[in-house]
Design a protein that fits this description.
With 250 residues, the protein is α+β, with helices and mostly antiparallel strands. The protein has six helices and eight strands; from the N terminus they run ααβαβββααββββα. Strands 1-2 form a two-stranded parallel ribbon. A two-stranded antiparallel ribbon has the order 3-4. Strands 5-6 form a two-stranded antiparallel ribbon.
Length: 250
């Protein structure tokens, strides 16, 4: 994320003022800490815009992108926020990236000498093919610039006009895609933060579990000599452990 920060900042200057917002989150931010002498407990909580902030900007939909269909719920630290979105009539939909499947297609390439050859180039299609890919904006209609131009299944064969406003889509969409968006609706559920809230509103005063994002260290002579989870540990092979031994505070 840090590597691409400058690249994204440069591209951001080229976006129109009304461009949709994108928030990039580390999907491993809540991964349980591994007791390893070479790493810290780097867990942290995500911060996303409140439901009121989204409504103020006229945002009525949020698309939660996850790696694959194994992830069926939002991360624990997003549960309160997403439930608040639903309560504010902000629709949250889920898009597994694995639904965009890689294929190869023959593409004609012209060389500088004028000769033409066919090469196989990779393509990513929603559902793995052109037919299902063209149905993406029917399934996620709120992403379409003009949703009324997209017909539900079934439709005529290719090419066919799309809506009264014009435009042509290519491909045979008489067969509906076998890929469907996951059935998802934010709901309050037990999380690692359950029972740690204070205050009278959802998400207010959310507290971290004991030890969350904290690493106990061993010190000797005023310097850190090792890391430990829950106290001084011996025999750890991390760089701190190799630097010396001792006991101390955290």
């Amino acid at each position: 994320m840090l590597y691409y920060a400058a690249y994204m900042q440069e591209r951001k200057q080229q976006l129109p003022a009304a461009a949709p917002g994108l928030l990039l989150l580390d999907n491993q931010r809540l991964t349980p800490y591994t007791d390893d002498g070479s790493q810290f407990d780097n867990r942290y909580l995500a911060t996303v815009p409140s439901a009121a902030a989204l409504r103020q900007r006229g945002i009525k939909h949020a698309l939660y992108i996850v790696p694959d269909r194994k992830q069926q719920d939002e991360s624990d630290d997003l549960n309160d926020d997403f439930v608040a979105y639903k309560d504010a009539n902000i629709k949250v939909a889920v898009l597994p990236l694995s639904d965009l499947q890689k294929t190869t297609e023959p593409v004609a390439k012209t060389a500088p000498d004028g000769t033409t050859r066919t090469v196989q180039e990779p393509r990513y299609y929603y559902g793995g093919g052109l037919e299902s890919h063209l149905g993406f904006l029917m399934l996620y209609s709120f992403l379409a610039p003009r949703p009324t131009l997209y017909y539900p299944y079934p439709v005529a064969s290719s090419p066919y006009p799309v809506g009264a406003g014009g435009g042509v889509a290519y491909g045979d969409l008489r067969r509906p895609t076998t890929v469907q968006p996951p059935s998802y609706e934010p709901r309050t559920r037990p999380t690692m933060f359950s029972g740690t809230r204070t205050g009278g509103q959802s998400g207010i005063g959310r507290a971290k579990p004991s030890g969350f994002g904290r690493t106990t260290v061993r010190t000797s002579g005023g310097r850190v000599t090792g890391m430990s989870r829950g106290g001084a540990a011996s025999g750890r092979s991390g760089s701190f452990g190799r630097g010396g031994t001792g006991s101390g505070g955290s």
